[in-house]
Amino acid sequence: MNRMISYEAKDTPVHRLSGFTKLVFFLLWCLTSALTYDTRVLLVMLVLGIVIYAVSRTEWKQVSGVLKAVMLFMVLNLAFIFIFSPYEGVKIYGSRTVLATLPGGVAVTAEQLFYEFNVMLKYFTVIPAVFIFLVTTDPSEFAASLDGVGVPYPFAYSVAIALRYIPDVQDDYRRIRDAQQARGIDMSAKAPFLERIRRVTSIIFPLLFSAMEHIEVVSNAMELRGFGKHKKRTWYARKPLKRADIAVILGTVIFAAAALVITWADGERFWNPFLTRLP
Amino acid sequence: MEPIIEFRNYGFQYTAQAEPTLSDIDLRIFPGEKVLIVGPSGCGKSTLAHCINALNPCSRPGTSTGSLTVGGLTPEEAGVFGMSKIVGTVLQDTDGQFIGLTVAEDLAFALENDMVRQEEMHARVDEISGLVGMRDFLRRAPGELSGGQKQRVSMGGVLVDDVKILLFDEPLANLDPATGKDAIALIDEIGREQDKTVIIIEHRLEDALYRSVDRIVVMGDGRIRADGPPDEILCSDVLSREGIREPLYLTALKYAGCRVRPEDHPASVTTLEIAPYKDAIAGRYGGADPRVPETGGEEILRVEDLTYAYRPGEPVLKHVDLSVRRGEMVALVGKNGAGKSTLSSLICGFIKPAEGRILLSGEDMAGLTVKERGERIGLVMQSPNQMISKPMIREEVGLGLAARGVPEEEASRAVEDALRICGLYPFRNWPVGALSFGQKKRVSIASILAIRPDLLILDEPTAGQDYRHYTEIMEFLKDLNEKTGLTILMITHDMHLMLEYTDRAIVLADGECIADTTPARVLTDPEVCAKACLKETSLYPLALACGIEPPDLFVERFIALERGVRAAQADKGGAA
Known about the structure:
The complex is a heterodimer of chains A (279) and B (576). Chain A is mainly alpha-helical and 279 residues long. Chain A has helices at residues 13-16, 19-35, 39-55, 60-84, 88-93, 110-136, 139-148, 153-182, 193-224, 243-264, 273-277, and strands spanning 98-101, 107-109.
C-alpha cells in the first residue's frame, strides 16, 4: 500500500546527499521564504524548487493527497486575508490602483492582488522543499545527522521513532476508521463538513488509546536495550558528509544570504513594482 | 553449582497497588537451565520477569521484600541498564518492540547505545543476523516482515549483548500456530548452542512444550504453586487448579479414565508411553457416533470467485468461493498474510473486489456503502480499545444507532437488549474506563449487536487472553449463537478455539481457499496444516498411536465429550 509523504529509496543526486545536508537546505530555504516578500527572489526560488523536485524524481502520487490539503488551506488563507484586511496591499505598497469595486463598497486593488500573489508564491516555494525533504531523507540516517550537529540524541532519536511508528499509526487509523464507518459513522464526503469533524473524534480516541498501549511497550523495549545509558551513542546508519554535501550546504548558505541581501537592498521586505510607475 | 537467579522469600508490591503482586517467592534457576513459567493472567508471572530485568521497580515503582540476585547482582541496584548486560528480554509485542527503522538498525540498537564503533557494529550485526536467520532481510522495514521474522529480530536484538539469560515474555502471543512452533524451536536451539539460561513465560502450555524444558514453574495469585520437571507437573492437578489449560492429549487421556504417570513421560505427545493407556482410549473413543455437523439454515453469505490485489500482479485473494449459512459458527483460519483480513475487509466493503461477487442473503452487495453493509454485517475488531470512543457504556453501545438517526426510544430499547445479552445491563451507566478488558470486549460486541446485524465477524476474539478469559468470551459467543441464532464468522489463530467452538473451518493459504470442512478434519490433515501454517492437534498423533481410524473421528468424539463437560461446568457455575 502506498503511503503519503514517506521516504522512498531511489538513486538520485538528492537521495545520495546526507540527511544533514537536506535538513540545512530545508531550514535555510524555509527561513528565506518566510522572510522575503521580494517577488524576484520568490520566483527564482519557485523555479529552483521545481527543478530540484524534478531531479529528486518524486512522483505525483507520493505527494498529491497532502498537496491538495495544503492547497485548500492556502486558498482559505488567501480568502481570509482579503476578507479581514482588503487594503493590506495598499498599506504595504503605498499606492492604490482600484480595479473593481465589490458590492458593499470594498475595492479590489492591484496592490492587494499583488500582495496575495506573493503570499501564494511563498506557499509554492516552501511546498517542494518540504516534500523533497520528507520523501528523499532516509529517516534513520536523518536522526544520525541531527545528532551530528549537536542536537541531543534523545531528541534526534525521538524524530526517528516518530517516523518508525507513523506507518503503524496510519494502519491503525485506517482500520479504526473502517470499523467505525461500518458502525454507521459516516466519514465519507457525503456527510456535512462540521458533522465529519465531530465524527472524527470517534476515530481519534480509539487511536489515542491504541497508541498509549504501544508507547509503554516501546519505552520499555528501548530502556531494556540501554537507550539513554550514555551521554552519546553511535549510529549504525550514519552517512559521513561527502564533497557534494559540502557543496550543497555552501551553495544554500550563499543563496540564502544573497536572497536576503537583495530583498533588503531597498530597505524593506517588499519589492514594489508600483513605485516605479509613479511619476 | 551456584544458581544464576535466586529469589529468597521474595515479595513485590507496586506503589500503585494495595496488595503485593508477588509474595513468598523462593525460586532458584541454574545456569544453562530452561524454565517455563506458567500461570493465568494476573498471577504475577510478568511481574516476576520484570523483577529479573529490573523494570520493576526501576520503571514501575514498587517495593520488594526478601532478596533477589541475578548473575551475582541485585537487579534493583544494578538498574535496567546494568541488568541488560546479563538478561536479554524479548517482550510479547513483536511489533512494538521493533524500534529500528530497518532490521539492521534494530539489531544494532543496543550496540549504538553502548557507543560501539560503526565498523564493529556492522560486523556484529552481520554475525547475529546469521544466527537468527535474518541476514537476507537487513534492509527491510518492520512493515515488510512477518510476525515470526520480527520475533527473530527481537531475539537478535538482545543476543548482540552476549547476555547470559534470555527472558521471553509470552513469545507465542502474536504468532500463528506454525510460526509459534518455529519460535519455540529457535529459542531451544539458541539456548542450547549459545549456552544460555532460558526463561519462557507463557500461558499456552502445550504450545510452549513443543520443545522440552527442564522445569515448569506454576504460578497463581502471586505465589509459586508448583515447581518441578514437566512430567510431574503434568501429572498433578495443579494446572487445572490454577486455570491453565493442560495439553489436549492429556485431557483426552483423562476423559478415557486414565491416570497418567510421570514415568510415562507425558511432557510431549511424542515421548508419551502410550501402551498402558491404549485400551482405555480405544474403549472410550472407539465406538460412539461422531457428531453430525448441522448444515444450518438458508445461505446468508456467499462469496463467489473473489479476487483482490493491493498491487497489480500480486493477488492477495485468488478466486475464493465460500458460503456461510444462517446460525453457523465458522472459523476463518490461515497464516498471517494469507488474506483473512482482506477477505473481511471485502465483505464489509472497506475495499472493492477486482473480480467476483459477495452476496448477502442472495443480494449482491456491490452497490451498498460501508454504512449500509454495516447494518447487516457487524465487525468486531481484535482489541476493544480500537473501537471504544465514548466515555459511557450506554453511549458507546448506542453510537451506531445514534449515527443512523434511529429514534431515541427505539435506540434505547435496542441498546438495553444488547446490554442484557452481553451481561452488561447492570453496568449500563458506568464509565467504560471502569471495566476489565473482557468486559470492554463485551461492550464492543454489544455496540455491534445493538445494530442487529445478521452476521457477526470477529477478528481474533481471544487474542492475548488466558484460558479463563478465553473460555468466558467463547462461552458467551456460543451462547449468543445458540440463543439468538446469530451467525458468527471468526478470524482466528487459535486452534483450540476452532476445534471446540466452530462447526466448520475455512482455510486460506496464499490467497486460495484450500479447505472448507470440519475443524477436526482440518487439524488432522498434515498437508492442509503445513500449507496454511496451522498446527495439527496433538490428538492426531495420539489417535495414530492408538490405531483409531480415521483420526478426525477420534477428534470429533473428544470434542463432543469436551463440550459436554463444559456444558456441565457452565450449568454448575450458573447454579452457583
